[in-house]
Design brief:
The chain is of the alpha/beta class and 196 residues long. The chain is built from 5 helices and 7 strands, in the order E-H-E-H-E-E-H-E-E-E-H-H. It has a single domain, classed as Maf protein (Alpha-Beta Complex), CATH 3.90.950.
Length: 196
């Protein structure tokens, strides 16, 4: 079974990636399982730039294949905010609750609440970048958080065709619909993992 290290300290992301790739026979190791990740400054101006930088630098440092993702929420009425700043929207050291409160405050009085989650997956070996894949899921932002599952903006995001937030949907349903799930499926379909 091929092994890939997920270049993230976010345990929720690792769990999602493991759940999506395990049925495909790919073992995903956490950063903790390999002794940690190198510090990589995410200074790119796109999701792709950040994902590629994380994957390439971590694969080189660890000497093994690494999967990195950069993802976030884009709200159309806010010109794509929070975008690449999704995790630190409320400032450095921010957390999910503060980020959600800031988003809801920025949308106060706004009738257009359409949004999308975007994810770019980058896969790298110690020799360099293998490739990237992108996924998205569209939906809208509700007025108050609902649900106990998920993380980040999941309690306020309702995907198209559903009435429940990502935080209310069962994990397997969210993984099937999510931007990260779509990006990973696109990576598999394009043969990205055959190079591992």
């Amino acid at each position: 079974m091929p092994q890939i290290v997920a270049a993230t300290g976010n345990a929720h992301k690792v769990e999602e990636i493991q759940a999506i790739l395990a049925p495909l026979g790919i073992e995903v190791l956490s950063a903790k399982a390999v002794g940690g990740m190198p510090d990589v400054v995410e200074d790119g101006d796109t999701f792709a730039a950040n994902a590629i930088k994380k994957a390439v630098e971590a694969a080189r440092a660890l000497g093994r294949p690494v999967l990195a993702d950069d993802s976030g929420l884009e709200v159309f009425a806010l010109g794509g905010e929070p975008g690449i700043y999704s995790a630190r929207y409320a400032g450095e050291g921010g957390n999910d609750g503060r980020n959600v409160r800031k988003l809801l405050g920025r949308l106060d009085g706004q009738t257009d609440r359409a949004a999308r989650f975007v994810c770019v997956i980058a896969l790298a070996s110690p020799a360099g970048l293998i490739g990237t894949a992108e996924g998205e899921v569209r939906g809208h932002i509700i007025h108050e958080p609902r649900g106990d599952g998920g993380f980040g903006y999941d309690p306020v995001f309702v995907p198209e065709g559903f009435t429940q937030t990502f935080a209310e949907l069962p994990g397997e349903v969210k993984n099937r619909l999510s931007h990260r799930g779509n990006a990973l499926q696109n990576a598999v379909a394009s043969g990205l993992f055959t190079a591992v």
